[in-house]
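A common beginner's mistake is to predict each chain separately and then try to dock the pieces by hand. The better habit, illustrated here, is to supply every component at once so that their relative placement is modeled jointly.
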Amino acid sequence: MPGKLKAKIVAGRHLPVMDRASDLTDAFVEVKFGNTTFKTDVYPKSLNPQWNSEWFKFEVDDEDLQDEPLQITVLDHDTYSANDAIGKVYIDIDPLLSSEAATVISGWFPIYDTIHGIRGEINVLVKVDLFNDLNRFRQSSCGVKFFCTTSIPRCYRAAMVHGFVEELVVNEDPEYQWIDRIRTPRASNEARQRLISLMSGELQRKIGLKVLEMGGNAVVGYLQCFDLEGESGLVVRAIGTACTLEKLSNSSAAAPPACNSPSKDIKEPPFSEDPNPNTHSSGPSTPLKTQTYSFSPSKSYSRQSSSSDTDLSLTPKTGMGSGGSAGKEGGPLKTLLRQQTQSALEQREFPFFTLTSFPPGFLIHVGGVVSARSVKLLDRIHNPDEPETRDAWWEEIRQEIKSHARALGCHAVVGYSESTSICEEVCILSASGTAAVLHPKFMQEGCLDGYSDPSRLEEPSPPSCGFCHIPYDELNIPFPAHLTYCYHCRRQKVPDVLFTTIDMPAEAAVTGKGCLIQARLCRLKKKAQGEVNATAISNLLPFMEYELHTQLMNKLKLRGMNALFGLRIQISVGENMLVGLASATAVYLTALPTPGGIQIAGKTPSDITYEQHISNMQKKINDTIAKNKELYEVNPPEVIEEVIGSPIPEPRQRSRLFRSHSESSDEVSELDLSHGKKDAFVLEIDDTDAVEDIHSLLTDTPAPAGFYSCNTEIMPGIYNWTSGLQMFTSVRVFRLSNANLTNQGLNKIFNDLCENLLKSLYFKLRSMIPCCLCHLNFTVAVPEDELIQVAVTAVAMTFDKDQAQENWKLGADKTHMKAIVENEEQLQFPLELCTESPSTNPFSPCRGTGLQESANAHATPRAASVDYSSFADRWSSWIELIRLKAQTIRRGSIKTTSSLEKASPLPEGRSRSLRSTRSYAGSTVAVVKMTPLSFIPGTRIIKYLGIINMFFIRETTSLREEGGVSGFLHAFIAEVFAMVRAHVAALGGNAVVSYSMKECVFMENPNKNQAQCLINVSGDAVIFMRESELEATPAPPQTSCSGGEVTT
Amino acid sequence: MGKMSVELDVFVGNTTIMDEEVYQFWLDGYTVADAVRVRMEGGVLQECEASAEVLHSDTMDQFRTFQMCERLLHCPSKLANQLLFQIPPHRQAMLIERYYAFDDAFVREVLGKKLSKGTKKDLDDVSAKTGITLKSCRRQFDNFKRVFKVVEELKGSLVENIQQHFLLSDKLARDYAAIVFFANNRFETGKRKLQYLSFQDFAFCAVQLINNWTVGAVDNMVEDMDVDLDKEFLQDLKDLKVLITDKDMLDQHKSLVCTALRGKTKVFNEMEANFKNLSRGLVNIAAKLMNAKDVRDFFIDLVEKFIEPCRSDRWTAGDIKLFLTHYTNSVHILDTFKHQVVWDRYMGVVKSCILKMYHD
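With all components supplied together, the output reads:
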């Protein structure tokens, strides 16, 4: 009996009128935990009852503490008939189980009913007394901290990064019974909410146990998802990164780094076999190492069989650094380092990390995006206690990801995430991440003394280019790529384009600003059932991946940029179509070569008008590129071409060259065929399909003046954020008329949908100019036959325009490094292996995170056998082809020239936000900020209070009366926000960071006047303080910000 | 379009986004389409390269938000305590103030009327007459009624009660006090002869009456103190009749006033000729006020019995002021008149009201 949970019901307010006769309510409260229920007295005839109850005490196992929510039900007493439920509050008490998180939950919670929404508020007080549990074989994992944040949480230091943790639990979906009308919708919804809450708790507990086994104390980048498999059941699954975190005290700055010299173990060459550079050679591989589109009926898999399924050999000792490349990469030490990391990582089944940004030094190189998708047929989960099938599915996908990473010369995957899309009985499982080479120190114990604190500021910054350097063997590039010498250090090879799923490393040098890029695609498919359907989907996927990739590449070139961060490709399945949406943040990495332009080529030189048309098109593209460069301030310094290896124009030829000269790889660069000019992307205009491509390419309108947007945490190139902050969620559902839609027509619609949504956002937020929409993440779904749903959650943040334009170059590195140091604290690796670092930086060679990714390749589906003639040509000749029909392209040089100067008629963000801060102070309800980012500009997070993970169902049978579908969903989203804020405030917090809406499943039946929606949100509750306040108060009292209380 | 339609479109911010201009359209009872049209004409499109669709979507969102807030606005103190919308306090104040604001044209139509269902049914006529949308008329009417019901039974200052319960600005609270006061006493304000008077004229008069003639003017801790007129005082007003029934007193009063005004006004002759009529008018109004029905006619009586005669003789506002000052003060010199206090309490208000009401 290791814990005592205590709850006290204080008061209620704004209750609904339950008795029409008196216009009043006789309310009482049931408090339930596990199987124990307590009741308060009835507080008669009041809409603002003051129960002021005794402390209700529950003596429970900590296992239950983790799994169960505290369930509070407010009822109206009725002498003659059954008591009517007013609504419920579920309180997750997990935050109280960790000593470092919240100590009490106290505040006003909205009383929620799945049919009526919020109905008044209730003031509750909850505490937990935990007894020390000496049982080593315990089932609970109390005290393991969970973070949604995908970086080392500010105010902690990563002593150790243990690695990947995953778990899933399955159950039958109670909703299934609803169809049979066995119970009321309310009862069904509540059963479902409760079940999911229980399953989430159980999942978290199980993951916590794994973390404890690994010796960690926290899970960072915790990502929990639901698969509503309908009749097959309900799956709750989660992945995360186990870490050992140490809390940073503000005064710890004194301790100097214990070792500033290379630590010993690095010099000890770990014995490892020679890499086998050919591991990757099976199948056409690409930088977007994605596809294995296997479709298999679920039953055939078991854990045992899955690993042998993959084509690639997974011999654990395979290494990637070949002798030749290692030499270039900085000498034997480097090789050793790498091998060591590798062996550290290879002890793990899956060297995956859900983090997207890292302590300096963690990430050494980045190899590219790796992804895998698989189509499965769902069947009934027979035994909930043994979810083997689902486990096996994911196991298979992960193995594939792992092998893709190996092919890229990497032994780890960072920025890793998993998702599903389900339509009826078909399920697409997707996983993606960024292949990377990591520093071993984070993975090993006992060598973590060499780190420091803010004092690190004085040290040389890590090389800004290290992560860009290729990790794979130049001689055996797993896919065709143009390599050049790094434009920053001129020593190492870099790819011409880099795609990643992570945030841009803080130390990366960029030219100009970044921007959001989206590739959008719809593909019709025939309605089908079972295996036929699954096979059809499997066959379509490679083409979609390929097209999305081509679009991304074209759009990247069109903006004159060379790298993508935060790449997220989503493919959603519907009954008669697939929808693909890829979002990423494009930047110009200074270390990478200037991208060539886009060149249009007619297929066959024919008549003069055709030529004319092509040259017009070419001019438009050139103009657009020029305008974009101006818009995003992409003005790379002139580089002397001769010094660097120039791109190799024709990959086949190049690879032949490589082969013949493999013994002396050092000289390869001299043999590179130099075109002198940067190669241009070639768009070939030949068939109808290309019309849409070129169209979407040129119709993407840039954000209005004063706006920037990105889907990463922050916008590369903007550093001086001010305090204006507006988190929002926007959802749109479009109905396609059943006219005969073509793929092209559908694409246009989808493209317009996304563009219009963006335009709406800009318009809505225009008062915040100059501002940037950060973490702009779109989620697409095909909820019904002719519906496309797009949901977006993001945050608009103001910044100081003037500084942004002039001073960032000076201030940027510093500010940025400061931020890292303050918040992420890390080990430093004072290694000397840094041949690759510029001579000015004597140490800190490999600190640069290395995400390098060469993405210029195309998705080359395995299913290349599909009949799609030009397809194979494309990748083999390694030229980007976009075919284009003669078509007028509107969008002249409208207003791209409008400069930033004109942008803001409004006062600076700073003054505005000051005003609002001041006035907030008078409010009786604590202000809770919400943001999808892991931080709030201008503030410091002083305490993490626990994870927020909430699941709500809302249903209505009076849709019209509630303002139709929009009114219904609008109210529901507002209610969800309100409940999140209330929980955060009750924990004593004033913000939720890393907030995300992971699920928004909307179903309607207008004929029956009904609709239902499920929303799952998560985030980290925190206490933050303004930096200005912190300066004033050296030792901030922890309570000073916890204004969660509301007085009546 | 054609091939697709927006089935659902929502935007929800953690801090609720509200555009004051759009709020006003909503308050004014515009349809979404009308509001979009007016916004487009207003040039908002250029602001952010928006399209009509964008504007429509934005307007819809905001209208929905306002609709959801409306329930809270009915009890403004809830707005500060509710958890559903995170709205900065200064925006809350704006929402409330604008919600309770009313159109002068509208208030003139219902001022002094009973705030009943019957009156509400006639709002479509009011709407047609004033050009204010029926929706807006209903909101304004319901606001009047809601405020009336809440403060009706409360002790203490009317203005303060309104301010406290509805969190209105001082100015708006005073206006509501006037509306409540007029509604409670059912003063006639709608007659053709009163049409020239603005709401602000009446609101000014209301303040005079509330401050001087109500129960609250003597005792500030009773219910309805600012809403009901002081019955005793009204009773006492009968005693003023002696000023016109006692011929000596009337003559003496006249001669005192004439002596004081001689040479000081261009309408002296008209004044002298009309003195007895005017005095009878004012005193008779006072004497009748004990009947509730005649209270209602207070303003129309002032116009008919005093303002119109003066206006037809082309008195200036200065003339009126001069006359009323001496007319009031001269009574103090009448030895036989015993009701100086009542007289001053009566004439103080009447004088201010007439001065306010004497314009074109």
